[in-house]
Batch of 4 targets.
Target 1
Amino acid sequence: MQATAIDINPYTLMTDEECEARIDVARRTLGERLVILGHHYQRDEVFRHADYSGDSLKLSREAANSKAEYIVFCGVHFMAEVADILSRPEQVAILPDLAAGCSMADMANLANVQRAWRELGQVLDPDQSVTPVTYINSAADLKAFCGEHGGIVCTSTNARQVLEWSFSRREKVLFFPDQHLGRNTGYTMGIPLDEMVVWDYEQPMGGLSEEQIRKARIILWKGFCSVHQMFRPEHIDRFKEKYPDAKVISHPEASFEVCRKSDYVGSTEYIIKTIRASAPGTRWLVGTELNLVNRLHEECKAEGKSVHFMSPTVCMCSTMFRIDPQHLLWTLENLIDGRVVNQVKVPEREAELARLALDRMLEVSP
Ligand code: CIZ
Ligand code: SF4
């Protein structure tokens, strides 16, 4: 049996600088047994220690290909679950702070989705006519639900390809938990707004009439990201008044109105690529998480590009922010002592079904 883990408390009193040097030592000590994956929304003090950085699609591929014994995921809970599901059974996925969840992912749960499926069954046969699509920002049991019902996972990078795959099989999609990603993607594929209805999971039949359900192509779960909902069309208008030549780029988790007013819409990987490829001197207004925008600002200023954050108020993802150098160091020093703390392990049957839905996604992804 493993001895008790090292207490976290003394670590919480350490400064970021003290942690930094010890994290470097720990990484060297663990060598190839360890891989650290860092999501784009991580704060700099953590992000700089990542062996690989990316969005959840890229990082899930890194997890699937990694040979390391320990996969330490600096991101949020659903990402560590995906790493566990796609890695080999003997590999261990770790989330440095288990309280790092995602408020959007929490807006859909298995009981609510199963109820929606049953209620849709009063109007049509969902297993014949509806593909369940879950955004990767969701718990593993929802990915398993999709695996079991002929459905699929998507990320903001591959949402279009995933919806095309879904419509080639069944006439409708139930899309959860993010209504905005579903609506913004559906609209660019030519689906009119009145054929995308919102399923309010707190109401019987999602608050919809039989006719609305029959007519709908996409049934959008009433979920959203608390960070991306802060961006408003007025922010874009005000910026454009000041800088008429500026370019606007937004994440598809932002509202329909914000995305319509943006010149470009896409995932974090897309945002980074587009800004990096732009001409020197370009001015950008960016609607996504603050840590990423700040890093782009720093990186691009040498080329004379200026990168601005869309909201006048500071909006960071507070759960991503929970991963700090103190928790990362605590995790690594426990590993050096032979103890695994904060492992994320998806039950076997659930993982098997979730893998089905994730594999379908990886196959159709660009
Ligand atoms: O898929 C991801 O990693 C998230 C949450 C955002 C993005 O667009 O990269
Ligand atoms: Fe979840 Fe939004 Fe944070 Fe992404 S930015 S992890 S969707 S709460």
Note: The first strand starts at residue 34 and ends at 39.
Target 2
Amino acid sequence: MEHNTRFNIWYVLAAIWGVVLLQDLIFDQLRPQIIPYSEFIDALTRDKIEEISISNDRITGKMKGENDSEILFTTVRVDTDLSKVLAEHKVEFSGRLENTFLNSLLSWMIPIFFFFGVWYLLMRRMQGGQAGIMNFGKNKAKIIGEKDISTRFSDVAGADEAKEELKEIVDYLAHPEAYLEVGGQMPKGVLLVGPPGTGKTLIARAVAGEAGVPFFSISGSDFVEMFVGMGAARVRDLFVQAREKAPCIIFIDELDAIGKARGAGGMVGGHDEREQTLNQLLVEMDGFDSKKGIVIMAATNRPEVLDPALLRSGRFDRQVLIDRPDLAGRRAILEIHAAKVKLEDDVDLEVVAQKTAGFSGADLANAVNEAALLAVRNGRKKVSNKDLDEAVDRIIGGLEKKNRVINPAEKKIVAYHEVGHALVAALTEGSEPVHKISIIPRGLAALGYTQQRPTEDRYLMSRSELLAKIDVLLGGRVAEEIMFGSVTTGAGNDLMRATDIARAMIVEYGMGKTLGLSTYPRQRSPVFLQSDGGIAGGKDYSDETAALIDQETKQILEQRNLHVHRMLEEKKNTLVAIAEKLLEKEVLFGTEFMDMVKA
Ligand code: ADP
Ligand code: MG
Ligand code: ZN
């Protein structure tokens, strides 16, 4: 949903209506009562009239009402010779020039000013109180330039891989000349990818702090509500400023807000602004020379929506993953934040770390802070175990709604499932080596994952390699079956992918018995015609053939399942040992894992 604060006809209509209403309200009070001339004369003879002013055709004035109240009145003048009577009754009177023009002008102007005032205040509020009405939107996406950043890598815990990858950038920014001399080409753009609160902003600042260079930051979400053209101008500004201060870092937070794939998503008509901004960013990135010592960093938690053009070489071609911290990482983060508060001696951060699987760095910082507040509220001088417990429970309550915490029983199942995948991969020839196994929840779908990293680029796969892939996919489910005697819904996606591969072997690669060498490659319609990413178009073989294909697919899967079952049953001890280790550490890397497989 994109907000649109541009001129809107409904606002105008509402304002006009409001003006009319208000005008009525205000001037009702001041408006004199219209009375018949006879009543005026009557009041005059009874000495009720206090003062009047007379114009050509009208008499306006004050008269006494009941219990000394004053009534404003006006009446249409009938006889022309009043002054004598007036003098007789000692009424103060004056002649008056009609100036209804000024009157009515004022009666319109005041409400209009009032409305503009209110509107202006609202606008200011919406813009964080920065912009005046004349330079509307101009300061919206604020470029924040900071010189001496005090954040260091030591302030970021539990992101060792990311830090390692970023050290090179730090080194380059600190000594661009050295790199220039050798002629090395530095990356222009580094994209930090990871869930919210994992310290992306923090680590970007730490890079600037470590290198001792200025840090220019701007947030993508600030661009959303801007007038057309403003966003692009801001981006231009940003690069102009950065070029003056090079070497430096430009940091674009929430890149997805401007970097969404062009022509996809959003509302019709709402995108031109974002598109212009994005185009300008691409132009600027292409236009500058990385030798100047400017590195652009950006952060996103939704890399999948980014426009592919952003990820092309010469732009954000380097990506650094920052995941939620594992046990050791959480412990280290807790230590950083706990150092800022006073802790009771009995507090064991290790225990807190164990209880907080699925927490991001920000969640942990939040927990420590919350605990400190609780301590203060309870009149204590130091944070106790109980405070921390309560704070963690509160945050868990919030996270459970987002499915980011799993209970211990589920955690165990996930651990065995993942190790099942990994172990089959390790034991199967032609399978890609395991890079990382993790049971840190990643969001709604995946509770854990096993990452395999190909040793080389593969374009051709043999039958045995495809079967190995199927085996690995089945490994998770089989491990659950062996250990717990039942399977969970967690394996659904694995099965789907295994089935896909088995089918493809028969239908596309001519590796099955049913079709032999005749293949029926799936026809995929162009991406933009697919609503669900599924396969469009019908099959071009008979129903009998389809039944045969289904049967053979099933056969392959059953065969492989049996095979995997035997394999894991035989290595059950290893499976248990590794799974228990994983439960303890939450993340296992390739080498650690292989050491245990060989042990
Ligand atoms: P992101 O930009 O990824 O959403 P932030 O960098 O804004 O996350 O993190 C918010 C806060 O959470 C940080 O200011 C810091 O206090 C805390 N935090 C997050 N990750 C870490 C970490 N790895 N080490 C220490 N503190 C962290
Ligand atoms: Mg951030
Ligand atoms: Zn799985």
Note: The longest strand covers residues 58-64.
Target 3
Amino acid sequence: MRVLLVEDDIALANGMLLALRAQGFTVNHVALGQQALNTIRSQDCDAVVLDLGLPDIDGLDVLKITRQKNSRLPVLVLTARDGVDDRIRGLDIGADDYLVKPFAMPELFARLRVIERRLGTASSHLINLHGVTLDSTGHQAFFNDEALTLSRREYMVLKMLMESAGRIKTREQLEASLYAWGEEVASNALEVHISNLRKKLPKDFIKTIRGVGYSVSPP
Ligand code: CA
């Protein structure tokens, strides 16, 4: 899932970036409301974590404008401890969820996983398919109950495929979720991840849909 983080506190934003990336989220960070609006308008992000106290445009206005243009983009707002009115207004304008600062990172992960599950087909943090188990809370995968050693991107590919079991994930969808905006990507990078994954998974677990993408069979 591609997350747009809008936060002007650079130290906090850097900490969140590292933590979220370690959890397998693809994160793009901007510090200003106008940049957030530009990014939302021009790029394809799956969810937004939006600080309400921004230096240029009020976060609530960013949310309002976003809702006018894209009614379904999930937005989680970050508010100050005393910002009860902001919280209520945020939810009224259409925020999906909120967190009060200071918050614990695991709580942010949990809220984002709820959004992620709502966007995908998975309804639980555990998915079992053909002997392979994906635990999106523990950020791990198992084959016949043995933990698999996966790189961050291998895990992300496997997670996307298993959460959409029975549907094809196109190359473009997978690449877009794996890499941050503007990141330099080798043309065969996805094939390399898939090939490495296949060495660790049962035969034919990941199916190639020639010229389109990849899929995993439903149970
Ligand atoms: Ca702020």
Note: Helices lie at 10-22, 33-42, 59-69, 84-93, 105-119, 152-163, 171-178, 189-200.
Target 4
Amino acid sequence: MFSKILIANRGEIALRVIRACQSLGIATVAVYSEADAQAPHVLAADEAFLIGPPPVPQSYLNAAKILEVAQSCGAQAIHPGYGLLSENADFAAAWEAVEITFIGPSPKAIAAMGDKIAARAMMAKAGVPVVPGSGPIVDPADALAFAEQIGYPVMVKASAGGGGIGMQLVETPAELEKAVKMCGARAKTYFGSDVIYLEKAILKPRHIEVQILADHFDNVVILHERECSIQRRHQKVIEECPSPGVSPEQRRFLTERAIAATRAIGYANAGTLEFLMDADGNFYFLEMNTRLQVEHPVTEMVTGLDIVAWQIRIAAGDRLTFSAAPLNGHAIECRLYAEDPVTFMPQPGTLTRFEPPAGEGLRHDVGVVSGSVVTPFYDPMLGKLIAWGSTRTEAIERLRDALARYEIAGIKTNLPLLQTIVDSPAFAAADLDTGFISRMRQTVTA
Ligand code: MV4
């Protein structure tokens, strides 16, 4: 087992990984930018090193500096958290050269799942249902031919992309050529590759993702699914486990396919398979996330498992000690963002008051405290409020009560939006699909 781990991230996820290390008796090393010198994750770690000025490219994306700090402080392993460098195959590979363990899947698995066309082909080969789609599209004429074949509407996507960035819905042939060109150009800019592909657009889908844990001894355990349909422009806002729209038999189907897929790609550590579920209850694989996800706490609350501790133990060569995960009750997560609830613009400023409410079944994974300065340099997510109940109804009641008692002052947040959603009859009725927020007619009072 490692004796010292460097956490190459900041905010709530850095604190979360530090907590897992402490539960395993492992010393922790934080890295921070000048803007984060007094940040909670710096104060919580056993050691902390300044890695640069506030801008992310010079600090938390500065791979060379992070590698240097890890070597000089004698860390045996590094946890990337999520976002930032967590799905960068080159970053993951760089640690082998300095004999420090990257806590996550292999660089090969990260690269394979980062190529969405290749990932879809591997999943289809493993018997996982995928959205009907094309191979690489170079010539708009190929796109037109493919779209004619599968029928409109279609989704134009970047193969090196993901998370919906650069994705475009196309309803008619006239729009297709422009969309193909736009998507290709954007993909080139953002991802360095202009390879795009087409998929049949699944309308009014539910966004369901399956949590995987796999060790290096071919043991794979599926930790059920999460419902992530409540999103705004591909930013998840509320997630829950289990999905209210997935029956036990559908859960068995997803579990069996997810195990096959994990085995097929030789995957180890934590990962998430993203699916769309259509109105008829059919599942279609979208992409695989080769990292710990923001919303992992809802899975932890219903299984009683510490996913981050298991990531560390798997990376250290431990075997999984269970073959199935419990499913106890229901958990719902709200993401708290420092953004205007109406315009959604990020809201930097000083949190004059930040007091998460105490209460039965509540969990707070937050990266700020009263007095924290929220800067424009980083993701505006302040943290997460998670409520567990023995039923979905109880979880909602606890969530509503906690949102009403959350004390935040000094900057605007999306708290009013969260309350509007959680208080809505549509949410209580679990009438969920990716159009949920856009359908919400109520204006949100700031
Ligand atoms: C889709 C889709 C419908 N049809 N692909 C969004 C992020 C990335 N994981 C893939 N996503 C989607 N892919 C096909 N063929 C719907 C989504 C989607 C979505 C789309 C628009 C607005 C919000 C969304 C939320 C979740 C998923």
Note: Residues 131, 155, 163-164, 199-202, 205, 207, 231, 234, 274, 276, 286-287, 434 surround MV4 (CB under 6 Å).
